[in-house]
Design goal:
- This protein has three helices and five strands, in the order αβββαβαβ.
- By secondary structure, the protein is α+β, with helices and mostly antiparallel strands.
- The protein has one domain: 2-Layer Sandwich (HIT family, subunit A), CATH 3.30.428.
- A hairpin with a 7-residue loop joins strand 2 and strand 3.
- The longest helix has 17 residues.
- Bound molecules: guanosine-5'-monophosphate.
Length: 116
C-alpha cells in the first residue's frame, strides 16, 4: 500500500502551489525553497515512492517528465543557457518526499554536480 504524500494534494489542488504545467500523467510546480532562480518540481500524478519502485507501466509517465521538463525550460527561457534535471532516490541522495519527482534547476551557473 503506497503512502500518499502532500504532493498528491498539490496535484488534486487541495493545497496551494504555483502550478506551471499539468496533464494526465505529470504535474509541475515551483519548489517552495528554490535552490536556483528557476527551481521546478515535475511529479508523476500517480504516487510512486522512489525510482526503485518503477515498473514497465510507468514508462509513459517517466517519459512525460522529461518531455515536460524540456517544454517548461523553454517557457522559463533557461533552455538555451542550460539547466539540470535531478531525481533523488532514498536516503543517501537526500530524498525527502517519497513521491517520484524531478528537480528542474536553472537560471544561473549551477556549478559542480556534487557538493563536497
Ligand atoms: P527531495 O529532497 O525529496 O528530492 O525534494 C523535495 C523538494 O520538495 C524540496 O526541494 C523541497 O523544497 C520541496 N518542498 C517541500 N515541501 C514543499 C511544499 O509544501 N511545496 C512545494 N512547492 N515544494 C515543497
Amino acid at each position: 500500500m503506497v503512502q500518499e504524500t502532500f504532493f498528491s494534494k498539490i496535484i488534486r489542488r487541495e493545497i496551494t502551489a504555483d502550478i506551471l504545467y499539468q496533464d494526465n500523467l505529470v504535474t509541475a510546480f515551483r519548489d517552495i525553497s528554490p535552490q536556483a532562480p528557476s527551481h521546478i518540481l515535475i511529479v508523476t500524478n500517480q504516487c510512486i515512492p522512489t525510482i526503485n519502485d518503477i515498473k514497465p507501466e510507468h514508462e509513459a509517465a517517466l517519459g512525460r517528465m522529461i518531455i515536460s521538463a524540456s517544454l517548461i525550460a523553454k517557457k522559463e527561457k533557461i533552455a538555451q543557457d542550460g539547466y539540470r534535471l535531478i531525481i533523488n532516490c532514498n536516503h543517501n541522495a537526500g530524498q525527502e518526499v517519497y513521491h517520484i519527482h524531478m528537480h528542474l534547476l536553472g537560471g544561473c551557473l549551477l556549478g559542480p554536480l556534487l557538493a563536497r
